[in-house]
Automatic annotation (TrEMBL):
The modification 4-aspartylphosphate is found at residue 54. This is LytTR family two component transcriptional regulator. It holds the Pfam family Response_reg. InterPro entries: CheY-like_superfamily, LytR-like, LytTR_DNA-bd_dom, Sig_transdc_resp-reg_receiver. GO terms for molecular function: DNA binding; phosphorelay response regulator activity. Residues 3-114 form the Response regulatory domain. Keywords: Phosphoprotein. The lineage of its organism: Bacteria, Pseudomonadati, Bacteroidota, Cytophagia, Cytophagales. Gene3D superfamilies: 3.40.50.2300, LytTr DNA-binding domain. Residues 138-238 form the HTH LytTR-type domain. SMART domains: LytTR, REC.
Amino acid sequence: MLNCIAVDDENLALDLIEDNIQKIPFLNLVKRCKNAFEAMEILQNQEIDLLFLDIQMPGITGVQFLQSLPNSPMVIFVTAYKQYALEGFNLNVIDYLLKPIDFERFLKAVNKAYELHNLKQKSNLVENVVEPAKPTTIFVNADYSLVKLKIDEITYIEGLKDYIKIHLNSSTKPIVTRMTMKSIEEKLPSLEFFRVHKSFIVSLDKIESIRNLKIKIGNAQIPVSESYSEDFFKLIGQ
């Protein structure tokens, strides 16, 4: 439903706009206004989606009123004067209707406004989607306890049959835990860690150099196997 107001100094014009609005199920007329000052009061106190605005009005014209609005709703100019069409275009109005208003032309204009409103709503929904927080820690069983590890401290992981060694840059002693390589791989952020060998997973951020299919991380030389090398080098852009 689009909440709208009609602004015109002529009662006959307001009657026609109101009659047209009542025929369209997605429009809700909040108020008829005889001048821009009445309309301003409504805009300050209510959420208005669409404004039907006459141009030639006493006191302040529709163009001047629209230019004064810091955050304007969608606007359809309704006027008896063709010469303001270019000015309306420059003000990004939805449409420009000439009096007397033909209902089919009116319907086309409000359909355009309705489609634009729906596009904005969808865009806002996408912008407001909150991405799940990236995990910063994991827990593993080690020394008969659940040990919390900071993901950004992991340099590489080494597989040893039913056990793995988790090497950390904060400790010279690796964490040893009974766990498969597949299980630990599933716990780690896929964009930050990569399996380069059936027995090794590396932190991409901790790689210092690569030479002859050997990755240097600190004092360790980690092999890159042929079966993983193509995907690995694609990932790092080589």
